[in-house]
């Protein structure tokens, strides 16, 4: 499902956080959202997930302005794993937590038990958490929780995924596994990634945010130039496609020779 973010302005506590952001993701694209700490990535995801209303500009998913859809209809289109966990509280089991993803599909006519069960079962299996199904969510490790939250988002059967640092708590193999899984679902995805190597390897396009504006966007190698890596991230590095087809970053012996980036 296509995502369009159009001239988005967000102000939080009178502090302008996003200043005219435009983003396009075509159906099936995995778009990496990268940028230094505080550049506005999480705020942008919240706006796409309809949890912050913009001061100006808009977000359309599948051609519809998300604020013209009901909250339930918007949630059937977009599923999120956000940094504060859009976390479950209380003592739910893993299966119950994943089943929360079905809530947007429960209308006045009640539940479709068989379809719900299938969606939950499939998501639990895809995310490799079957062995945890009866555990309390609250008892899980950080990485296990990330997998369960992704399973909940997949059980939602939304056609747009927004992921905020999904790979944060994951060990290196799990990072590869989950990004490969997300690619394999073919779901349009906007993912905040701090790890530029993972972003370069898995994403179709990158969008770079800095100080609340998009400073670059497009195919990975067009975006991750040495000049941008120095100017925006403050590191001396370059990106290159290797013979195996994978784009990798190489950092200078002392990556900090690029000099400190300008602070706010
Ligand atoms: N409620 C708020 N009031 C004022 N400023 C805020 C508020 N929430 C966030 N900000 C500021 O907005 C800016 C962008 O924050 P955001 O969390 O979107 O950045 P980020 O790129 O996701 O950062 P990080 O990589 O560190 O997670 C930061 O300077 C932050 O301090």
From TrEMBL:
GO terms for molecular function: ATP binding. PROSITE patterns: ABC_TRANSPORTER_1 (PS00211), ABC_TRANSPORTER_2 (PS50893). The keyword ATP-binding applies. Keywords: ATP-binding, Nucleotide-binding. Gene3D superfamilies: P-loop containing nucleotide triphosphate hydrolases (3.40.50.300). Residues 3-236 form the ABC transporter domain. It holds the Pfam family ABC_tran. This is ABC transporter ATP-binding protein. It comes from Streptomyces kunmingensis.
């Amino acid at each position: 499902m296509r995502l369009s973010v159009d001239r988005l302005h967000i102000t939080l506590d009178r502090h302008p956080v996003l200043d005219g952001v435009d983003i396009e993701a075509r159906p099936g694209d995995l778009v990496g959202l990268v940028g230094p700490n505080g550049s506005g990535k999480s705020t942008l995801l919240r706006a796409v997930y309809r949890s912050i209303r913009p001061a100006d500009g808009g977000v359309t998913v599948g051609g519809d302005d998300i604020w013209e859809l009901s909250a339930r209809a918007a949630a059937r289109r977009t599923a999120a794993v956000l940094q504060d966990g859009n976390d479950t509280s209380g003592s739910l089991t893993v299966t119950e937590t994943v089943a929360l993803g079905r809530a947007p599909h429960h209308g006045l006519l009640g539940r479709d038990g068989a379809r719900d069960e299938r969606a939950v079962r499939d998501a639990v299996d895809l995310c490799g958490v079957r062995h945890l199904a009866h555990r309390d969510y609250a008892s899980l490790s950080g990485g296990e929780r990330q997998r369960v939250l992704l399973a909940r988002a997949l059980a939602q059967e939304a056609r747009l995924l927004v992921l905020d640092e999904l790979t944060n708590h994951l060990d290196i193999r799990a990072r590869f596994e989950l990004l490969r899984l997300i690619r394999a679902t073919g779901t349009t995805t906007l993912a905040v990634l701090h790890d530029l190597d993972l972003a370069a390897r898995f994403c179709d396009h990158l969008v770079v945010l800095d100080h609340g504006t998009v400073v670059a966007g497009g195919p990975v190698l067009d975006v991750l130039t040495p000049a941008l890596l120095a100017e925006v991230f403050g590191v001396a590095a370059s990106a290159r496609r290797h013979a195996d087809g994978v784009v990798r970053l190489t950092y200078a012996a002392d990556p900090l020779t690029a000099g400190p980036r300008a602070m706010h």
